[in-house]
Amino acid sequence: MSGEPVFFELGVEDAERGKRFYGELFGWTLSPGPSGAGFSIGTAGIPGGIHGGDRGASPYLFFRVDNLEEALARVRDLGGSVDETDLGESESTVAEYGRFKLCRDDQGSAFGLHEPPAK
Description:
Protein name: VOC domain-containing protein
InterPro entries: Anthracycline_SecMetBiosynth, Glyas_Bleomycin-R_OHBP_Dase, Glyoxy/Ble-like_N, VOC_core
Pfam family, one: Ble-like_N
Strand order of the largest sheet: 2-3-4-1-5-8-7-6
Domain VOC: 4-116
Radius of gyration: 14 Å
Protein backbone atom coordinates (compact mmCIF):
# COMPACT_ATOMS: atom_id res chain seq x y z
CA MET A 1 0.00 0.00 0.00
CA SER A 2 1.81 3.12 -1.16
CA GLY A 3 -0.72 5.84 -0.25
CA GLU A 4 0.01 8.38 -2.95
CA PRO A 5 -2.93 10.46 -4.26
CA VAL A 6 -4.07 8.90 -7.53
CA PHE A 7 -7.53 10.25 -8.35
CA PHE A 8 -9.95 13.01 -7.35
CA GLU A 9 -13.69 13.31 -7.87
CA LEU A 10 -15.85 16.44 -7.79
CA GLY A 11 -19.47 15.95 -6.77
CA VAL A 12 -21.93 18.50 -8.15
CA GLU A 13 -25.70 18.64 -8.54
CA ASP A 14 -25.63 18.86 -12.35
CA ALA A 15 -22.67 17.21 -14.12
CA GLU A 16 -23.17 19.21 -17.35
CA ARG A 17 -23.06 22.50 -15.43
CA GLY A 18 -20.01 21.25 -13.53
CA LYS A 19 -18.32 20.38 -16.82
CA ARG A 20 -18.90 23.90 -18.14
CA PHE A 21 -17.84 25.61 -14.90
CA TYR A 22 -14.63 23.69 -14.22
CA GLY A 23 -13.75 23.38 -17.90
CA GLU A 24 -13.90 27.16 -18.32
CA LEU A 25 -12.32 27.93 -14.93
CA PHE A 26 -9.27 25.67 -15.32
CA GLY A 27 -9.17 25.01 -19.08
CA TRP A 28 -9.71 21.31 -18.44
CA THR A 29 -10.50 18.89 -21.25
CA LEU A 30 -13.44 16.75 -20.11
CA SER A 31 -14.68 13.58 -21.77
CA PRO A 32 -17.61 11.28 -20.89
CA GLY A 33 -16.89 9.13 -17.84
CA PRO A 34 -16.92 5.33 -17.78
CA SER A 35 -20.55 5.15 -16.58
CA GLY A 36 -21.72 7.75 -19.07
CA ALA A 37 -23.18 9.79 -16.19
CA GLY A 38 -20.21 12.09 -15.53
CA PHE A 39 -16.96 13.31 -16.99
CA SER A 40 -13.30 12.39 -16.84
CA ILE A 41 -10.80 15.20 -16.46
CA GLY A 42 -7.80 14.67 -18.70
CA THR A 43 -5.55 17.66 -18.08
CA ALA A 44 -5.44 18.10 -14.31
CA GLY A 45 -2.19 16.19 -13.60
CA ILE A 46 -3.86 13.65 -11.32
CA PRO A 47 -6.78 11.96 -13.12
CA GLY A 48 -10.17 13.17 -11.98
CA GLY A 49 -13.87 13.08 -12.59
CA ILE A 50 -17.11 14.99 -12.12
CA HIS A 51 -20.35 13.27 -11.14
CA GLY A 52 -23.85 14.66 -10.66
CA GLY A 53 -26.48 14.20 -7.95
CA ASP A 54 -24.11 15.29 -5.15
CA ARG A 55 -24.91 18.98 -4.48
CA GLY A 56 -22.49 20.75 -2.15
CA ALA A 57 -20.13 17.79 -1.85
CA SER A 58 -16.52 18.26 -0.87
CA PRO A 59 -13.99 16.95 -3.38
CA TYR A 60 -13.09 13.29 -2.90
CA LEU A 61 -9.38 12.43 -2.85
CA PHE A 62 -8.48 8.80 -3.50
CA PHE A 63 -5.26 7.15 -2.31
CA ARG A 64 -3.69 4.14 -4.05
CA VAL A 65 -3.68 0.75 -2.32
CA ASP A 66 -2.40 -2.59 -3.59
CA ASN A 67 -5.24 -4.65 -2.12
CA LEU A 68 -8.57 -2.91 -1.51
CA GLU A 69 -10.05 -5.57 0.78
CA GLU A 70 -6.99 -5.56 3.05
CA ALA A 71 -6.96 -1.75 3.15
CA LEU A 72 -10.68 -1.62 4.02
CA ALA A 73 -10.11 -4.08 6.87
CA ARG A 74 -7.25 -1.89 8.10
CA VAL A 75 -9.49 1.21 7.98
CA ARG A 76 -12.02 -0.58 10.20
CA ASP A 77 -9.31 -1.91 12.54
CA LEU A 78 -8.05 1.64 13.06
CA GLY A 79 -11.53 2.90 14.01
CA GLY A 80 -12.55 4.29 10.63
CA SER A 81 -15.58 3.35 8.57
CA VAL A 82 -16.31 2.26 5.01
CA ASP A 83 -19.20 3.58 2.93
CA GLU A 84 -20.92 0.53 1.47
CA THR A 85 -22.51 2.52 -1.38
CA ASP A 86 -22.05 0.80 -4.74
CA LEU A 87 -19.90 3.08 -6.89
CA GLY A 88 -21.09 1.41 -10.10
CA GLU A 89 -18.20 -0.97 -10.50
CA SER A 90 -19.18 -3.18 -13.39
CA GLU A 91 -16.72 -5.85 -14.52
CA SER A 92 -15.66 -3.76 -17.52
CA THR A 93 -15.26 -0.58 -15.43
CA VAL A 94 -13.10 -2.39 -12.85
CA ALA A 95 -10.97 -3.92 -15.61
CA GLU A 96 -10.29 -0.48 -17.12
CA TYR A 97 -10.26 1.86 -14.08
CA GLY A 98 -9.84 -0.35 -11.01
CA ARG A 99 -11.90 -0.35 -7.80
CA PHE A 100 -12.85 2.63 -5.62
CA LYS A 101 -14.30 2.88 -2.11
CA LEU A 102 -15.22 5.89 0.04
CA CYS A 103 -14.17 5.82 3.70
CA ARG A 104 -14.00 7.98 6.81
CA ASP A 105 -11.12 8.12 9.23
CA ASP A 106 -11.51 7.64 13.00
CA GLN A 107 -12.48 11.33 13.31
CA GLY A 108 -15.10 11.31 10.54
CA SER A 109 -13.07 12.91 7.73
CA ALA A 110 -13.83 11.52 4.27
CA PHE A 111 -11.28 10.04 1.86
CA GLY A 112 -11.21 7.35 -0.80
CA LEU A 113 -9.16 4.27 -1.60
CA HIS A 114 -8.32 3.10 -5.12
CA GLU A 115 -6.99 -0.27 -6.23
CA PRO A 116 -5.65 0.06 -9.79
CA PRO A 117 -6.82 -2.44 -12.40
CA ALA A 118 -4.98 -5.73 -12.72
CA LYS A 119 -2.35 -5.68 -15.45
